[in-house]
């Protein structure tokens, strides 16, 4: 009896090599697509977080400026804005430090009309300041430090007793001398603000003969910038720029422009480990987002 053995089909070496090459190509394409998708997702996540930070800052600033309080015919200081960089941490291009009076809607800690809390005042003093610190105040070192924007709102009663009616160069020390400093956890607004610039749009009466049309002028609060100024002040006698008390005495404030740069978390992490790259446009384009808003002040 003869036994027949059937030949079993298999893969040749050439077929295996072709299959491996095809598989490698497919895996490489999938890895590339996944890497691109992750980068896009991280960028979108960073932009969403940055937009939330920007919205918190811009909306808060806009509300305070929209209810700006200024009274003319006196020697009092009503608004002071100057450029100031944080005492510690990386250098930044610019940051405006502000103190002014406003009819803020969240005065009395939001308990407006509550008996025993609301004493009828509607003018509050508010201050803004940027600092490099840990917003949670954990005291665990510099692992969580970032740029933090603070807003201190002084209730109307304390504003009336300690801050209203301050003449030249008195408002800032009076504000800084209040019992609780601005860098308190309850004054936190947002973080990762790399820089913010305030632009005042003024209407200046024309000095030309037989010309009634006012002149429009922009005043940018920004250090070391062409056309920018370091200090802007509004008193009961008019506007003062960098100590000049004559040029814009009769000018009117028509609007305020808010411009800011928000860093992604990856950018903040880079700042903790490497020198700041404020002038590196490529680095900023990769790690930051730009936002702006114009606040009109028709009543000024």
Briefly characterize the structure.
With 300 residues, the chain is α+β, with helices and mostly antiparallel strands. The chain is 28% helix and 29% strand.
Name the descriptors:
300 residues, alpha+beta, seven-stranded antiparallel sheet, five-stranded mixed sheet, 5 helices, 12 strands, 29% strand
**What structural class do the secondary elements suggest?**
alpha+beta
Number of strand elements: 12
Listing every helix as H and every strand as E from the N terminus to the C terminus, the arrangement reads HEEEEHHEEEEEEEHHE
Write down the domain tally. Answer: 1
Strand content range = 25-35%
Describe the structure.
It is built from five helices and twelve strands. With 300 residues, it is α+β, with helices and mostly antiparallel strands. The relative contact order is 0.16. The mean pLDDT is 82.
Explain the layout of strands and helices.
Elements: H1 13-66, E1 77-83, E2 96-102, E3 124-133, E4 146-154, H2 156-162, H3 171-176, E5 188-191, E6 193-204, E7 215-221, E8 228-229, E9 231-235, E10 238-241, E11 252-263, H4 265-273, H5 281-287, E12 288-296
Parallel strand pairs: 7-8
Antiparallel strand pairs: 1-2, 1-9, 2-3, 3-4, 4-5, 6-7, 6-11, 9-10, 11-12
